[in-house]
């Protein structure tokens, strides 16, 4: 009888440990890889990647997760995985302020003039579409495509006299 109780306690112990470990893991069951050959801006999609914002006297790095649902854009921005993320909810017709990528401590020290960019234009730029840059003074855009991944540019650079924003696209999901 004592051996039976010992076995049942061990079984319960392993079940609790198994449930705890399963609850700690993250699964992305809702995210499936993008299947189309080109990205349609009207579609719903999600992009994950990293960014680097270089300024004359400092730089900011971090990661982002962008989710586009109809005309609503949700951007989660994190500096590292230990600090909380900042979440931006924007409409496609709104403007994105590049200052949102800078931490508050560095923002107080900077006296640079940062551009705002239309969110719809920003989405088109990072997905590899061409836009009319005449409304953005001194903004230069360059894109690098990976040989295997021709749907999404692997690297996108937005450069002005005051800063250079480099976006590294990792994955795109439907």
- Summed up, the helix count is 3
Q: How many DSSP E strands?
A: 9
| Range of strand content | 25-35%
**How much is the radius of gyration in Å?**
22 Å
Coarse morphology: elongated
Low-confidence runs (pLDDT<50, min 5 residues)? none
**Biggest β-sheet description:** 7 strands, antiparallel
Elements, N to C (H/E): HEEEEEHEHEEE
Distance N terminus to C terminus? Answer: 56 Å
Structural class category: alpha+beta
**What is the overall pLDDT average?**
81
Helix fraction by DSSP (H/I, runs of at least 4)? 10-25%
- Give the count of structural domains: 1
Instruction: Record the strand order, biggest sheet.
Output: 4-3-2-1-9-8-7
**For this entry, what is the oligomeric state of its chains?**
single chain
How would you describe this protein?
This protein has 174 residues and is α+β, with helices and mostly antiparallel strands. The chain has one domain (45-173). Helices cover 21% and strands 34% of the residues. The chain has three helices and nine strands, in the order H-E-E-E-E-E-H-E-H-E-E-E. The strands form two sheets. The protein has a seven-stranded antiparallel β-sheet, covered by helices on one side. It has a two-stranded antiparallel ribbon with strand order 5-6. Strand 1 (45-54) and strand 2 form a beta hairpin. The longest helix is centred in the first third of the chain and has 23 residues, at 2-24. The mean pLDDT is 81.
Describe the protein's topology.
Layout: H1 2-24, E1 45-54, E2 59-69, E3 72-78, E4 86-91, E5 95-97, H2 104-109, E6 116-118, H3 119-126, E7 140-144, E8 155-159, E9 164-173
């Amino acid at each position: 009888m004592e051996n039976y109780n010992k076995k049942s306690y061990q079984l319960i112990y392993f079940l609790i440990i198994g449930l705890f470990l399963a609850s700690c893991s993250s699964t992305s069951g809702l995210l499936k890889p993008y299947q189309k050959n080109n990205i349609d801006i009207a579609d719903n999609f999600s992009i994950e990647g990293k960014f680097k914002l270089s300024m004359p006297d400092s730089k900011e790095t971090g990661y982002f997760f962008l989710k586009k649902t109809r005309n609503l854009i949700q951007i989660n921005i994190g500096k590292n995985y230990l600090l909380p993320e900042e979440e931006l909810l924007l409409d496609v017709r709104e403007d994105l302020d590049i200052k949102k990528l800078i931490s508050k401590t560095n923002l107080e020290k900077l006296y640079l003039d940062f551009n705002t960019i239309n969110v719809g234009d920003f989405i088109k730029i990072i997905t590899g579409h061409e836009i009319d840059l005449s409304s953005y003074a001194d903004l230069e855009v360059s894109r690098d495509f990976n040989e295997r991944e021709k749907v999404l540019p692997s690297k996108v650079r937005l450069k002005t006299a005051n800063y250079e924003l480099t976006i590294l696209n990792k994955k795109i999901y439907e």
